[in-house]
Amino acid sequence: MAIVKNKMPMPSQTAEESIKNFNEVPLGYTDQQAVSEASRCLQCKDAPCVGGCPVEIDIAGFIKLIAEKDFSVAVRKLKEKNSLPGICGRVCPQEDQCEKVCTLGKKYDPVAIGNLERFAADYEHSTGIVETEKHFPRKGKKIAIIGSGPSGLTIAGELAKLGYSLTIFEALHKPGGVLVYGIPEFRLPKAIIVREVEYIQKLGVEIKLNYVIGKIHTIDELFEMGYSAVYIGIGAGLPMFMDIPGENLIGVYSANEFLTRSNLMRAHDNDYDTPLMKGRRYAVVGGGNVAMDSARTAIRLGAEKVYNVYRRSRVEMPARIEEVVRAEHEGVILQFLTNPVRIVDDGKGWVKGIECIRMELGEPDESGRKRPVSVIGSEFVIDVDVVIMAIGTKANPLLTSTVPDIKLNTRGYIIVDEATGETSKKNVYAGGDIVTGSATVISAMGAAKKIAKAIDEFLK
Fold it and tell me: Taking the domain 15-127, which CATH number applies?
């Protein structure tokens, strides 16, 4: 059979349509499209794609089942390794992981593994029948998980299948962590998060909301309450700023606050009264997915102009290529080799503009990317009334400051044993962004799976 060289394109809203709503932009494959794309898979015996997947999904296995139109079994095959396929199929950077090492991709387009993962998860939901794995009899041991983001949900699912009693303590009023407060509806619909959280609950996991560990209870008190081990998966949610003049003006947001107000607190919805300043002209500073999410959200809030200010070139942008392309199509103006030096005051404490300087690329820095260097005398001002800082996050000390016997590195992240994820405090483990700093959803999930095995080995 002749090899189909190109990926099956996924149907999507047009840019003209998408900027007028918060609905998901990619619309998903039909059954026929999914079967056609799955049939491109070469079914390699060594399956290099599995090595590129942090949670080691049997990729060839579930794709073969889709090609054979056995969709229900395909999603069960997925869930053997991944409890959150609907989420991963949408937000994981497959182009830098499984698809990057796809054998077919050496000569043609790689198989659209992420699109097929999403298809299988969505098919299960469309049937209304969500099966849960049979798990072992309860071992009588309780484990506390702090945080319900991707790492917390993953380790809860893994340990529940091994027979442990799990309680997730979530500080916010909805579970999902960064999935629910950080990623916009048009990229990850909240209904997807709800149904995958419900799957974790069907495995027997209890979730307690509005529960701030470090305030309501300490980790030591959790042990007093009968928990045998504690897992910390609180992410790295403390926003970072540039420390330039004008960052305290009215109209300056961190991306965390801007996206949380829009996503979790639904400021974009007229049925909610969450305040969120809706300006005419925005500057979003940063080059990652969070910057793209912020810029595309601003477009949907009715902005006339949205500038993305990034100090390096397009090649160095850490955002997914497809998100940058969508942002451009939706009207975001990309300002490369540009760095803010001051936010301009209108004289009354409000943002009037953002003063920037042109950059040029020098020698590579510790990240391997070329270091941006200022071009002296090239300053200029962009007229804006809202500035969103999307330059990254750091460790929030709210919890760790209450546990002095947990060792932190100089940046405030938790130091763990690389093999087991155990912290310097006995029976306390940690994983995800609170250990690594801001990273991907799937990398946090991969770490959680490894740590689940270590906890099980210890508690046995």
Answer: 1.10.1060.10
